[in-house]
Design a protein that fits this description.
With 442 residues, the chain is of the alpha+beta class. It is 53% helix and 20% strand. It contains nine helices and 15 strands. Helix 4 (98-126) packs parallel to helix 6 and helix 6 runs antiparallel to helix 7 (217-292). It starts with a helix and ends with a helix.
Length: 442
């Protein structure tokens, strides 16, 4: 029995687990544990760069220049085509001047008449016989049309002066006649006074003789009637003199009134004419400005793109773009749209990987730029109404100076904006931690 018990006991150098597991199994478990441990360590320690995928287009850093016209018009001549290089101030196209010229001519015809009226009214106001054009219009003072207007106004001034002089002369003649009449009546009064004095003496003498019985009473009464008649005539003459003096005063007042009315009329007309001149001068300046802007010039040097008018006689819509000019020395950048939900992850200086999708992706490498600007507020797409933020990403020189391809404004570009580095474990635990945080807040 003792030998049997000894024979069934395992050798002291062999453990039970090793006896049960083959060597290949132990090796497999070791590899699994090693890989799992490595994954855990990698998820805890290894950084992982996130990215925000966006799309946009290539443009110039300082924006392309829009060529447009405020009033629009009909194309008279085109001087450039799509892709042409132009310099600042170069003529791009001209609009038909027919309408502008007709407007200016009509305004100038009216302005010439008003200036002539003003010169004539000013001369009437100041009592001059010469016409002087207001300052600021020396450029048209010697024009045949202006001279013709001034000659016509001189004739009108002369006629009006003669009319006023005739009116005054008639009134003055009437005053002179009335004064002569007064002088005649005063002489009649003097003669009447003499007759009255003589008749009074005669009445007194015959009255005395009548009292003595040497003269008839009838004679005395006849003399008294004659005396009374003469005294009545004298009073009538005095009354006529007073009435005539009133007429003289009225005639003198009429002279003053005519002069005053004429002056008020002149001043009223002058104010009205000067107001019209001011308004018409502004309208003429605006019309001349429109005429001078019929030649549309390049706002800056660069390349012409986006030409929308190609035909002589075509219509240019007011304030609508006619073409665009890409500034020649401006650096190209990529402008991409960022969703509002991702804007908190975007900052200036952030790295971005650029892919220009217009080229063959097998031949065009990716380039690394950085964010140089972010819009301060959300923008809105006018077509879709979607809101977004605009990020500007620099394009490296190696891409801009490439010999195998040329980057042009307007090309599409995809950008991958790198976010802050995080571990895999933080990505896996973040949803759980957010859920726990919300649970505790509730």
């Amino acid at each position: 029995m003792a030998e049997q018990a000894f024979s069934f006991a395992p050798p002291p150098s062999v453990r039970p687990a090793e006896a049960r597991l083959p060597q290949t199994v132990r090796l497999g478990w070791s590899i699994i544990l090693l890989v799992f441990g490595g994954l855990v360590a990698w998820s805890v320690l290894a950084p992982f760069h996130g990215a925000i995928l966006t799309a946009g287009h290539v443009t110039v850093e300082n924006e392309q220049q829009i060529v447009q016209h405020l009033e629009g018009g009909i194309v008279r001549q085109l001087y450039v085509r799509e892709g042409d290089q132009v310099s600042a101030g170069q003529k791009l196209l001209s609009l038909d001047p027919t309408t502008a010229d007709a407007t200016i001519q009509a305004q100038e015809a009216r302005l010439f008449d008003l200036l002539g009226n003003e010169a004539r009214l000013t001369a009437e106001r100041d009592g001059r016989e010469t016409l002087v054009l207001r300052p600021g219009f020396d450029d048209i003072a010697d024009s045949p049309r202006m001279k013709g207007v001034l000659d016509s106004q001189k004739s009108l001034l002369k006629a009006r002066n003669e009319t006023r002089a005739t009116q005054r002369r008639i009134l003055e003649q009437r005053i002179s006649q009335l004064r002569t009449r007064i002088e005649g009546m005063q002489k009649e009064i003097s003669t009447t006074d003499t007759q009255i004095s003589l008749l009074e003496d005669e009445v007194a003498r015959f009255q005395k003789l009548s009292e003595q019985g040497n003269a008839s009473e009838v004679r005395v009464l006849s003399l008294k009637r004659d005396l009374s008649r003469l005294q009545g005539e004298k009073e009538s003459l005095r009354s006529d003199i007073a009435a005539t003096r009133v007429q003289i005063g009225e005639a003198q007042s009429e002279i003053v009134r005519v002069e005053q009315d004429n002056r008020e009329t002149v001043l009223t007309e002058l104010r009205d004419v000067q107001t019209q001149i001011g308004q018409l001068t502004e309208e003429r300046s605006a019309a001349l400005d429109r005429r001078n802007r019929l030649d549309i010039l390049a706002p800056s040097g660069g390349r012409v793109i986006g030409v929308r008018t190609h035909t002589v006689g075509g219509v240019v819509t007011p304030s609508e773009p006619i073409m665009y000019i890409v500034p020649e020395n401006d650096r190209l950048v990529a402008k991409v749209r960022v969703r509002p939900a991702d804007i908190d992850k975007i900052s200036i200086g952030q790295r971005a990987t650029l892919r220009f999708t217009a080229f063959d992706q097998n031949m065009t490498p990716q380039y690394t730029g950085e964010v140089i600007n972010v819009s301060a507020d959300a923008l809105q797409d006018p077509t879709t109404g979607a809101t977004y933020y605009e990020a500007v990403v620099s394009i490296p020189d190696e891409a801009l100076n490439s010999e195998t391809f040329t980057i042009l404004p307007g090309m599409p570009v995809d950008a991958s904006l790198q976010t802050e580095s995080r571990t895999v474990l933080s990505y896996l635990l973040k949803p759980l931690m957010d859920s726990v945080s919300r649970t505790f807040r509730e």
